Amino acid sequence: MAAYTLRRILQMVPLLLGITVVLFAVIQAAPGGPEGALLESGRFIDPEVIEAYRERLGVDQPIPVQYVRWLGAALQGDLGVSFSTTRPVVEMILERLPATLELMGTAFLLAAVLAFALGTLSAVKPFSWFDNAGTTLSFLGIAMPVFWFALLLQLVFGVWLQWLPLSGTRTVGASSLGDHLAHLVLPAVVLSFRYVAGWSRYLRSSLISALRADYIRTARAKGLTEWRVVGVHGLRNALIPVVSVVALNLAALFSGAVITETVFAWPGIGRMFVTAMLARDYPLLMGILMLGSVMVVVFNLVADLVYGWLDPRIRYD
Fold it and tell me: Crossing angle for the helix pair 89-124 and 282-310, nearest 10 degrees?
């Protein structure tokens, strides 16, 4: 296992290098530039001023030159300086990362617990009223736009019922843990809802197939309790294909936080990404996108390692 893990980590290097090339090219190919925010103000700006501005930011150089310069600095842990704030990108990301990880972690735990319960119960009693209700819920979760669901919850629980706060992380003048958790409820529910729907359906389908296998009939013939048959023998094998979906969606939680954090004014990286995109802040965009790319690669490695734990037949060495 150790040799396989080391080999996969080494394979990440050229993969992430290729990702940096693609991301850098896409960002540079976007219409406009860092001077676009100045031009959109509607005021006349002397072309010489614009050129001097581009030169100061270093975007007047050819794209390959800019990339090599960025890569050299990135290998030393320097992702550049934000165009809009003149602060180091690494510092800005680390400042916002805890809020995003808190939201992602809460949403993941909520989605995992609910999906596990819904998927297992639906598989044990397929085509029952509970399974049909779960299927309907899944369709709603997959089809419903995230921003619309967020606004709906704000309207119901924040405006009509006034049970929960609409946005932010704390009420002005309040610093209690309960107040902070109340602010966390709505964005966490919105971010997790789509994944509850998808993961529960994947688990249901996989567990139904597992419960029809010969080894399950053998376990029941030996007199094992239904809880042990389903919980130990069935789920262990049913979770193997689900792990891939969950691992990929963990990285998707990061991108999904962009919309959720924007709607709920949650001070995380997702909200900062929207601000950087509107300001055409190239270094900050590259830093955030690279963080998301690293998360995708790492979570895929974690998924492969979990396979070996769930299925003893899988050997990597």
Answer: 40
> Residue 77: which region, alpha, beta or left (left: phi > 0; alpha: psi -120 to 50)?
left
Question: What is the C-alpha separation between 174 and 157, in angstroms, rounded?
Answer: 20
For residue 283, the number of C-alpha atoms closer than 13 Å in the C-beta half-sphere is: 25
Question: 3-state DSSP call for residue 278?
Answer: helix
Residue written as tokens 């998301």?
A: 292
Structure tokens at 144: 């419903």
Give 15-54 pLDDT, tens digit per residue: 999 999 999 998 888 776 676 655 555 555 667 777 777 7
Classify each residue of 293-305 as buried b or exposed e, where b means 16 or more C-beta atoms within 10 Å of its C-beta: bebbbbbbbebbb
Delimit the domains of the chain by residue range: 2-74, 90-143+190-310
- The CB density around residue 193, as the number of other CB atoms within 10 Å, is 23
- Spell out the CATH class of 90-143+190-310: mainly alpha
Three-state DSSP at 190 gives helix
